[in-house]
C-alpha cells in the first residue's frame, strides 16, 4: 500500500520485526517505522533532527541515509554528512544507544586543538571536547554551516584551521590556498564568520550553482556575463563531481576574458558590518587582479595571518616571489576585523628559483613571515630577508625526487603546523610538516633542531592493531602526503604535543607527547670555518649520474625458460644495474634473452620484510606491497616522452602466497574497454593487463632481503630484441610496509621522480621520458 506521512523519504530497510524503516529528510529529519499495511508504528530520533549549528544533540539526526538492523533489532543509521561523519545506533524501542564519529578529512586535515584552551578542538566542522586524562573526545557543537543564502563564507570542514587570540576572545582562522576566513568562537561552540578573502574557485569545489550575489558581480556589462555563461556553463551551474573540469573551465574563462580586455572580477573581500555573519551585497567587494594590479589572493596551503591579524598572500610566478600584506585597520562595531583593498601593499618582490609547488607562508609571534620555498626564508613585515635555510625539495612534488632523509635535510616541507614558546633561551620553535612523513623543528631565528618521526619510504614501524596509550612512536612515520597535523605546547602541563596521522592511523589525528624537547640548549657562540673541501658543491651526489645505461648481453645458448642467477654476470658494473635508497634499501638487476624467452634477475635486494604482498587483485599489486618491475619500450629506440604502442610494464611479485607475473600493455590498437586506475587527481588507462600463466618466477629469500629471477616467453610480449639495438626502459623495486598491505617506497634505477606513494593513478602510469637505455651487445 501507499505510505503517507513522509515528506522526503530516502533510506529504506526491513527489520526482523517485519516492519519497514524509512529515513525522512523533511522537517522531522528522523526515521519512521511502518507496518506492512503502511501504518506508522513509531519514530526514531528527535523530531526536527539536531540543531544545524550550535549545541550538538546526540538523539537528533541530520540527513539519515543508510539504514540497517542487526540481529538484536538495533537500528544503525549512517548520515549523509561530514560534520561529523556519523553512524548512530538505536535500541529497538527507539532510544539512542551510542554513536561512532569519524574519520577526519584526508590525512587528519580539518583538525586543530585550541592551544590556548586545549580541552577543545575543531574537527571537520565541529567543536569537540577533549578529555586528556582518559584520552577520550566527544562532539560538543556544530561550529558553522551555510544555513542561509547569505552564508557564503565560514570555516570549512576540510580546510586548515588555526586559533588566534585577541585579549580574551578566541578566533578561528580557516582556509585553503585561495581562501581564508576569520570567525569568532562563541561559548556554545559555534563560530561566527567575521571576514573572508579569496578567489572565485572557492565556490567551484562542489557541484552547486554559483551564488547569484557572486555571479552578478563578475562584470558590469550583463552581456559579458551572458557570453561567459554560454561558453562555460559548468562554472556557473556545476556538473556533478567532475571538479577538475569545472576549475579548468574557470581558468580558461579567466584567460579569455583577459585576452578580450574584459577581465573578470574573480577575487573578493568580505567584512561583516551588521554582526549577522552573513554576506550582504554592500559588504562584499569584488575586484580583478588585472585591473587593480593586485593583490593576488592566492597562497600555498593557507594564507598567513599574523598575531595582529594582518593577512599575507604569496605568489610564485616566472621565477619571482611576490608577497602581499593586507593589514588589519581596526575592528568595527560588529566585532569584525577591518580590511580595505587600498591598504594592501606588496612588501616583497624577489627573484627565486622556479618553484613546482606554491610557496606557503606562516607568521611567528613577532609578525615575521616564514616562506616555504627554495630556500626556506624568514622576512620581516617590511619585506627584509632575515635568514635563509637550504630547502631544495619543497612541497609535495619536490619530495618526489628527494634522497633519503638525513639530519638537517628537509624533505618536501609543506607548511608550518604550529609553534611553541620554548622559553627565553630558545625562543619560539616552529614545526614544518614533511611530505614523506617527517616533522621538522626549527627555531624562528633559523636554527635546525630535530626531525620527528621517520621517512615513510623506509617502511618504519606500524601502529598496533588496537589503540594503545603510551606507545612509543619514535620509529613510526606520519606517512606520505601527511597533510594534517599540529604542534603546540599545552598550558595545562607545559608539555609539547604533536598531532596528526601516524603510519596506518592515517585518516585520524593521533595526539602524541614529545619528550626531551625541554632539555634543549643553545650552543655558545663560536666561529665555524667552511671550505670547498668540506662542501665542494653543496649538492647531494647521485651515484647514477646524469644518465642510466645498461649493457645487455644475449645468451649464447638457450636456457630453456629456466630462470636463475647463473644467467647474469653480477661482477660487471656495465651489465648490472645497481641502485641504492639508503643502507636498508638497495638492489641489483639485469635482464637477458635467448631465442624464445626473456630472463630478468633482481639480485641481493635489501628488504627487512622480503617479498611481502597481501594484495588479492593481480592488477594492483604495485599498490599493496613488494614487487619487482621491468619497464620497456619494445618498439625500438627513441626518446619520445609520450606513451606509445609497445610500451610495457612487467610486474613480478606474490599473490595469495604464490609467485606471479603480470604484464601491462599501455597501448593496444582496437581496445575499447581499457583497465582504469583512478584517483582524485586523474585516471590512468591501460589497454591490457594480463597475468602470465606460462611465466616462471623464482623467489629466493635471503638474510635481510631476497633475490628474484623470472622468465617470460618473448611471444607473450610480442617482441624480440635485436643484437646491437638500443631500447628504452627501467628497473624498479617497490617496498611494502611491515604488514604487506600498502607500498611505502618506489625505488627505480633510472627514474628519480618516484617518491609518490599515495596516488593509484600516478603509480599505475609509466614515464618513458625518464627511462634509461638498454644497449644490446652484438
Gist?
This protein has 778 residues and is mostly beta strands. It has nine helices and 49 strands.
Structure report:
With 778 residues, the chain is mainly beta. Among the domains are: 9-101, Beta Barrel (Thrombin, subunit H), CATH 2.40.10.500; 391-541, no CATH class; 550-776, Sandwich (Immunoglobulin-like), CATH 2.60.40. The protein has 9 helices and 49 strands. The strands form 11 sheets. Strands 35, 39, 40, 41, 44, 47, 48 and 49 form an 8-stranded mixed beta sheet that branches. It is globular. 43% of the residues are buried.
Q: How many angstroms separate the termini?
A: 83 Å
Note the beta-strand portion. Answer: 35-45%
Number of strands: 49
What characteristic shape results from the CA principal axes?
A: globular
CATH third-level topology of one domain: Immunoglobulin-like
Layout: helices, strands, pairs:
Layout lengths: L8 E6 L5 E5 L5 E5 L5 E5 L9 E2 L8 E6 L5 E5 L6 E5 L5 E6 L9 E3 L6 E4 L2 E6 L4 E7 L17 E7 L2 E8 L2 E7 L5 E9 L12 H4 L6 H10 L1 H5 L5 H17 L7 E5 L12 E4 L1 H4 L11 E2 L5 E7 L2 E7 L18 E7 L8 E4 L5 E4 L3 E4 L5 E5 L5 H5 L13 E9 L6 E7 L4 E5 L4 E5 L33 E4 L6 E7 L2 E10 L34 E4 L24 E6 L2 E9 L3 E10 L14 H4 L2 E7 L13 E9 L2 E8 L9 E5 L2 E5 L1 E4 L4 E7 L2 E9 H4 L8 E11 L6 E6 L11 H5 L7 E5 L2
Parallel strand pairs: 35-49
Antiparallel strand pairs: 1-2, 2-3, 3-4, 5-13, 6-7, 7-8, 8-9, 10-11, 11-12, 12-13, 14-15, 15-16, 16-17, 17-18, 18-19, 20-21, 21-22, 22-23, 24-25, 25-26, 26-27, 28-29, 29-30, 30-31, 32-33, 33-34, 36-37, 37-38, 38-46, 39-40, 39-47, 40-41, 41-44, 42-43, 45-46, 47-48, 47-49
Amino acid at each position: 500500500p501507499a505510505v503517507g506521512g513522509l515528506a522526503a523519504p530516502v533510506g529504506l530497510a526491513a527489520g526482523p520485526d517485519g516492519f519497514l524503516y524509512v529515513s525522512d529528510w523533511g522537517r522531522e529529519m528522523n526515521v519512521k517505522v511502518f507496518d506492512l499495511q503502511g501504518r506508522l508504528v513509531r519514530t526514531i530520533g528527535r523530531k526536527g533532527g539536531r540543531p544545524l549549528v550550535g549545541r550538538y544533540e546526540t538523539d537528533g539526526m541530520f540527513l539519515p541515509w543508510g539504514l540497517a538492523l542487526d540481529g538484536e533489532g538495533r537500528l544503525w543509521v549512517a548520515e549523509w554528512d561530514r560534520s561529523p561523519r556519523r553512524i548512530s545506533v538505536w535500541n529497538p524501542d527507539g532510544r539512542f544507544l551510542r554513536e561512532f564519529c569519524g574519520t577526519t578529512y584526508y590525512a587528519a586535515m580539518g583538525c586543530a586543538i585550541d592551544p590556548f584552551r586545549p580541552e577543545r578542538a575543531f574537527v571537520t566542522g565541529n567543536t569537540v571536547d577533549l578529555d586528556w586524562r582518559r584520552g577520550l573526545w566527544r562532539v560538543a557543537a556544530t561550529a558553522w554551516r551555510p544555513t542561509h543564502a547569505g552564508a557564503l563564507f565560514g570555516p570549512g570542514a576540510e580546510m586548515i584551521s588555526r586559533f588566534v587570540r585577541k585579549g580574551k576572545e578566541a578566533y578561528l582562522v580557516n582556509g585553503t590556498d585561495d581562501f581564508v576566513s576569520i570567525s569568532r568562537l562563541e561559548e556554545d561552540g559555534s563560530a561566527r564568520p567575521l571576514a573572508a578573502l579569496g578567489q572565485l574557485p572557492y565556490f567551484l569545489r562542489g557541484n552547486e550553482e554559483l551564488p547569484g550575489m557572486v555571479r552578478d558581480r563578475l562584470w558590469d556589462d550583463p552581456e559579458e556575463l551572458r557570453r561567459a555563461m554560454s561558453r562555460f556553463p559548468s562554472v556557473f551551474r556545476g556538473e556533478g563531481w567532475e571538479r577538475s573540469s569545472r576549475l579548468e573551465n574557470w581558468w580558461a574563462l579567466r584567460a579569455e576574458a583577459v585576452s578580450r580586455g574584459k577581465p573578470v572580477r574573480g577575487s573578493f573581500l568580505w567584512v561583516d558590518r551588521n554582526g549577522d555573519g552573513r554576506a550582504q551585497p554592500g559588504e562584499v567587494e569584488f575586484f580583478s587582479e588585472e585591473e587593480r594590479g593586485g593583490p593576488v589572493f592566492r597562497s600555498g596551503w593557507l594564507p598567513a595571518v599574523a598575531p595582529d591579524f594582518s593577512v599575507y598572500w604569496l605568489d610564485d610566478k616566472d621565477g619571482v616571489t611576490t608577497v602581499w600584506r593586507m593589514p588589519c585597520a581596526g575592528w568595527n562595531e560588529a566585532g569584525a576585523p577591518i580590511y580595505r583593498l587600498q591598504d594592501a601593499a606588496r612588501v616583497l618582490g624577489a627573484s627565486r628559483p622556479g618553484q613546482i609547488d606554491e610557496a606557503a607562508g606562516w607568521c611567528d609571534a613577532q609578525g615575521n613571515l616564514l616562506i616555504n620555498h627554495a630556500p626556506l626564508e624568514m622576512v620581516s613585515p617590511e619585506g627584509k630577508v632575515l635568514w635563509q635555510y637550504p630547502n631544495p625539495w619543497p612541497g609535495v612534488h619536490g619530495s618526489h625526487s628527494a634522497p633519503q632523509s638525513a639530519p638537517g635535510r628537509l624533505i618536501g616541507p609543506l607548511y608550518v603546523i604550529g609553534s611553541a614558546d620554548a622559553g627565553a633561551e630558545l625562543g619560539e620553535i616552529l614545526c614544518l610538516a614533511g611530505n614523506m612523513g617527517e616533522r621538522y623543528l626549527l627555531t624562528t631565528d633559523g636554527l635546525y633542531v630535530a626531525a620527528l618521526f621517520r621517512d615513510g619510504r623506509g617502511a618504519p614501524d606500524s601502529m598496533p592493531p588496537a589503540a594503545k596509550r603510551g606507545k612509543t612512536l619514535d620509529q613510526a612515520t606520519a606517512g606520505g602526503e601527511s597533510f594534517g597535523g599540529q604542534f603546540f605546547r599545552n598550558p595545562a602541563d607545559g608539555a609539547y604535543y604533536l598531532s596528526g596521522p601516524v603510519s596506518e592511523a592515517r585518516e585520524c589525528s593521533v595526539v602524541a607527547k614529545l619528550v626531551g624537547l625541554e632539555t634543549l640548549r643553545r650552543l655558545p657562540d663560536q666561529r665555524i670555518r667552511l671550505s670547498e673541501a668540506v662542501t665542494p658543491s653543496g649538492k647531494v651526489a647521485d651515484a647514477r649520474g646524469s644518465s642510466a645505461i645498461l649493457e645487455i648481453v644475449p645468451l649464447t645458448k638457450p636456457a630453456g625458460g629456466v630462470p636463475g642467477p647463473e644467467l647474469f654476470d653480477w661482477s660487471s658494473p656495465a651489465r648490472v644495474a645497481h641502485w641504492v635508497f639508503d643502507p636498508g634499501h638497495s638492489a641489483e638487476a639485469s635482464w637477458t634473452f635467448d631465442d624464445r624467452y626473456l630472463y630478468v634477475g633482481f639480485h641481493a635486494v635489501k628488504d627487512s620484510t622480503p617479498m611481502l604482498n597481501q594484495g588479492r587483485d593481480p592488477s594492483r599489486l604495485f599498490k599493496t606491497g613488494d614487487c619487482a618491475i621491468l619497464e620497456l619500450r619494445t618498439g625500438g629506440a627513441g626518446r619520445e616522452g609520450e606513451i606509445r604502442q609497445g610500451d610495457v610494464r612487467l610486474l613480478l611479485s606474490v599473490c595469495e602466497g604464490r609467485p606471479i607475473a603480470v604484464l601491462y600493455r599501455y597501448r593496444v590498437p582496437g581496445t575499447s574497454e581499457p583497465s582504469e586506475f583512478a584517483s582524485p587527481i586523474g585516471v590512468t588507462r591501460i589497454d591490457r593487463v594480463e597475468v602470465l600463466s606460462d611465466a616462471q618466477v623464482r623467489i629466493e629469500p635471503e638474510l635481510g632481503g631476497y633475490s628474484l629471477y623470472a622468465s617470460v616467453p618473448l611471444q607473450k610480449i610480442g617482441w624480440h630484441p635485436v643484437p646491437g639495438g638500443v631500447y628504452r626502459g627501467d628497473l624498479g623495486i617497490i617496498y611494502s610496509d611491515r604488514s604487506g598491505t600498502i607500498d611505502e617506497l618506489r625505488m627505480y634505477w633510472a627514474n628519480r621522480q618516484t617518491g609518490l606513494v599515495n596516488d593509484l593513478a600516478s603509480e599505475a602510469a609509466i614515464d618513458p621520458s625518464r627511462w634509461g637505455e638498454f644497449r644490446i651487445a652484438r
